Predict the structure.
Amino acid sequence: MSHKLIDAPPVADSGALRAAFGRFATGVVAVTYEADGVRYGMTANSFTSVSLDPALALVAVKKTSRAREFLETGYYTVNVLAEQQLDTGLHFAGRPGGAEVEWLTTGRSPRLAGALAYFECEPWATYDGGDHVLVVGRITAFGEGVEVAEAAPLVFFEGAWRRLAAGACA
Ligand SMILES: Cc1cc2nc3c(=O)[nH]c(=O)nc-3n(C[C@H](O)[C@H](O)[C@H](O)COP(=O)(O)O)c2cc1C
């Protein structure tokens, strides 16, 4: 069987590649963890569910990020952000703007109040992902948070934060 080869974009055009990637609409998560008694978060849209048995989830983490070593070695929580948590998403993307982050600290890693769902994870495997590390975690606890009827998901599309249009299309 032969495949038609499509030229890979030149590395110099990473802006065009980023724009094309950006046409894939995603939800947004904040990955939270604690290190030396301090609670941290990292905004991400590379979250992917992986496996039900065992329960696994993946986040692609930039190799230069502070979060990397902690996600590879300790417990962390993936929080699915609601529309009302836009300021939290900005805050954990390195754009602090006075976001009031409300933490819940009953689990093995801190998580966010007001999220649509959460997945507490422990390290399972990591894979090289170029300038990112693909961090696969085993889910040790999870739950749904605020009702979707009360809080819509935060959406990221074409480099902008969006809200989900109401109604199903099929
Ligand atoms: C919508 C959005 C999605 C992002 N997704 C990711 C991601 O999947 N992986 C990643 O490493 N960084 C992602 N980032 C960038 C990080 O949030 C940002 O680099 C952050 O400052 C890293 O924090 P840290 O260095 O404290 O860990 C995203 C940023 C935004 C605004």
Observations:
- The two ends are 35 Å apart (CA to CA).
- The first helix runs from residue 14 to 21.
- The chain has three helices and twelve strands.
- The longest strand covers residues 117-129.
